[in-house]
Every structure is written in structure tokens, then in C-alpha cells.
Amino acid sequence: MVALLWIMRPDDANVAGNVHGGTVLKMIEEAGAIISTRHCNSQNGERCVAALARVERTDFLSPMCIGEVAHVSAEITYTSKHSVEVQVHVMSENILTGTKKLTNKATLWYVPLSLKNVDKVLEVPPVVYSRQEQEEEGRKRYEAQKLERMETKWRNGDIIQPVLNPEPNTVSYSQSSLIHLVGPSDCTLHGFVHGGVTMKLMDEVAGIVAARHCKTNIVTASVDAINFHDKIRKGCVITISGRMTFTSNKSMEIEVLVDADPVVNNFVKRYRAASAFFTYVSLSPEGKSLPVPQLVPETEDEKKRFEEGKGRYLQMKAKRQGQAETQA
């Protein structure tokens, strides 16, 4: 078990005082990286660093505010031959009243990369389970995420293109991009970008898309699985692009794509490094949920993405209803 503490400062939050979803994701990833790297080096053998491969769907259960303390705890729950599953819980604490509340639960997958050659994936020391069912349940989760990762690779050639003079409420009107030069402060000691840094930048772009669309205060409600397709090395220029894919009455789904361009290496072409879907909600100044302007898809691709997003929304809505009925 790893437990970390952070106090939330003004530069961690938006203008309304709500901590950015990307800040929370970065804390989650740091805790996961520490515990998985420790585990992968727990036996004698070639030394390694754990690199983030995937983050499962993460719900933001309660907002965190400036001045609160974030308690982040991480635990290894499953290991395969070449990967580690880490489950992370985030609690926020009001240090004036002592009140604590659960804000996030997340599942992350890491792979150990050799310090001698970061392109080489090493074997993971097995974890000891307290009961056999834990290993069986973990194996099912491992196989499910492995299949989903394969299904996302077909989207890797998709590129978001700018459009001149777009109409309000269209995909083109709110789509946004951020270009970032990867420096030493973004990277591990071994020269590739921390997964938490990438997720924070992805959340920033998704937040810009959501704010442009609804013109109100917005907060991250959830993040669908984030897949890291390839490492991003120091010196790369990364382009983080976001576009609205679906709106319900009170939520917005935004697809975010990360492309890396190794500008100092003529032998490596631009490539897709990560992708994810973020869900945002619109809030009034009092923090109440507001209706979202409905997205107007124009092209056939946009209409197709809208229907796919609607399917994900209905699937998650049915899952939540089923969980509520089970608990009742």
C-alpha cells in the first residue's frame, strides 16, 4: 500500500475553485507509478521503471476544492506476466472541519520497462493473493482491458482538422488543440513522459472544448478508459486535440487524441501516443447542474461518432441503474 498527501492550491483549480480533473489524474498516476515500480523491483534481477499503459474508466464522485487535502492511496490487486493492476482511491479532507469524502476510484495498468533498454518489457514478480477468487477476478479484468486496448488501435489514423468560420454548437466550433514541447520536467529520469503529465494536458484540452461549447463553468464528471499506445520521449512536440462527440441533456462527451512528433529524429514519423473520452458537466455559479446545448453533427463521420457516443452513454447509464438496484 502507498499513501500520499497533497494540499490543493489555487493553481490546481479553475476560476470557480474546483480542482482540475487533470490535477487529480496526475496525483492518481504518481501513486500508481510509485507502488508498481517498487513491486517490479522487489526481486533480484534487471532493474526497471513502471510505465502507464492504461487507465480504466474513472468517475469523479465529488468535487475537490482549494485548501482541501487530497489523500491518495494505491494498492496492487493483480499481476500478469508483463503487467501490474493498481487500484487507487482519492479522499478529500477539509482540514478546518476534519470532514472527509471519497472523490475518485481508479484502476491503472502498468508495464515494467528495463532501465538498460526502455523498449524492453520485463516480467513482473507475482503478487500473493489472500484468496483464489482474487486472482480469477483479476485475470478476467486483465483479459477485458487487453481486448478493449486492441479495439482502440483502429482509430489511430484519425486526425482532427481545423474548420474556418464554424457555426455555434457544431463539432468544429468547440474543437481545440494544444501544442506542447516535452521538456525534462515532464519526464521520468529515463527520458519519457510521465503518464500523469499527459493526462493533465488531455484534461485541459477537454475542458476548453466543453467551456467553448456551453460558455459556463464546467467540471470533469468521468474519464473513459485512457489508452497509452506508445511512449513519448523528451524533445518530442505533442499535439493534444479534442472534439465534442456527443451531448445528453446534462453531459458532454469529448474525444481527446495525443500525437507525438519526434522533431529531432528524422527516422521516426509522427505517431498516435494516447487517446481517451472525457465526460464533462455544466455548472451554475451555485454549483448546480445546468442543461447542455445540444451538439449539431454535420458530417457523416460526426453523426457516426455521435451515435457511438450515445451508445456509450446509454450503456453506462444502464450500468449505474443496475448497480443502484443491486445496492437497494
Automatic annotation (TrEMBL):
It is found in: Cytoplasm. Residues 1-116, 172-286 form the HotDog ACOT-type domain. The active site is at N14, D203. GO terms for biological process: acyl-CoA metabolic process; fatty acid catabolic process. GO terms for molecular function: carboxylic ester hydrolase activity; long-chain fatty acyl-CoA hydrolase activity. The keyword Nuclease does not apply. Residues 301-311 have a biased composition (Basic and acidic residues). Its EC number is 3.1.2.2. It is an enzyme of class 3 (hydrolase). One of its GO terms (cellular component) is cytosol. Keywords: Cytoplasm, Hydrolase, Lipid metabolism, Repeat, Serine esterase. Transmembrane segments: none annotated. This is palmitoyl-CoA hydrolase. The lineage of its organism: Eukaryota, Metazoa, Chordata, Craniata, Vertebrata. The gene is ACOT7.
